[in-house]
Amino acid sequence: MDRRRFLLTSVVGALVAPRAAGAQQAGKVYRVGILTNKASEPAEARLWQAFRLGLQERGWIEGRNLLIEFREAEGNFARLPELAADLVRLKVDLIVARSSHFVQPAKDATSSIPIVFVVHADPVSTGHVTSLARPGGNITGLANLMTDLGPKELELLSAAVPSAKRIAVLWNPDTPSHPPTLKAVEEAGRTLGVQLHAVSARGPGELEGAFAAMARARVQAVLILGNPIVFAERQRLAELAIKYRLSTMSEIKDVVEAGGLMSYGADFPDLYRRGAIYVDRILKGAKPADLPVEQATKFELVVNLKTAKALGLTIPPSVLARADQVIE
């Protein structure tokens, strides 16, 4: 952490030099493209509001010196290449990609327009940056490093439901960060002495079948690897978990608020607010290649005791003592 802060401080020092500060053209209205899923959906809208507040704190006012162009997949992720190409045709000054799912289409569409990701599970393993300290190319942003987070989530799930010796991992082969995360989780499972059963779901239409497969495999709990589909389908995931009597763990707090059992993950609004810092620096002349990727620093463990009661579970006091929020 100290090394990352040193690197970032060095970059900031360079950015306040007169030449960099003068790179922002007086009177110009900059255009920022955002590649996302459903920006108007209430939970996602709150995240983009945090991003907008971060921009306002740095003097960026929509309609005065900044225009924001949203391009939304609305659940149809096959459209992402087309949406990214549209932002390139608009000649936006910068593209904000919500997560790893959105970075690849943006990367395929341009090698020159800066790309900032606000939540990336593992930008190095996916090849989106060369390293965290020196991203290289035109891409940088903030990471929550799911390959580190997944094993921790499995550990917490196992501690909360010690009777669960067969645990499913719900993953999406089309999400760039999921294959390396699944591998890390499988290694953690061997250490914890639990048997893992990987079940894939590429879209909402495959969720029911995935949970039915878990039931046939006689698993007692499920670790849900986060992606935009999980975020969008959080209510249905919670309902399926209750239907099939499965304890769930996710990195997405919204899943627990919808009725899932537990979540452990980064503070997403904080990451979106910090994403505005990257946008500000790049629009003022910094190069993405020179801006180190920062990692999430705020994490939350959330437990839903109402769901635990519905499942007939008693969460150990040692787990509850570690919780940042308990839903009763």
Summarize the structure in words.
- It is a single chain.
- The chain starts with a helix and ends with a strand.
- Helix 4 (80-89) crosses helix 5 and helix 6 (146-160) runs parallel beside helix 7 (178-192).
- The chain has a seven-stranded mixed beta sheet with strand order 7-6-8-9-10-12-13, sandwiched between helices. A six-stranded parallel beta sheet has the order 2-1-3-4-5-11.
- It is of the alpha/beta class and 328 residues long.
- The chain is 43% helix and 20% strand.
- The longest helix is centred in the first third of the chain and has 16 residues, at 42-57.
Please provide a brief summary of the model:
With 328 residues, the chain is of the alpha/beta class.
Please give a handful of descriptors for the protein shown.
single chain; 7-stranded mixed β-sheet; 328 residues; 6-stranded parallel β-sheet; disordered N terminus; alpha/beta
Round the Cα radius of gyration to an integer and report it.
20 Å
Number of strands: 13
Straight-line N-to-C gap: 35 Å
Number of helices: 14
Element-by-element helix/strand order: HHEHEHEHEEHEHEHEHHEHEHEEHHE
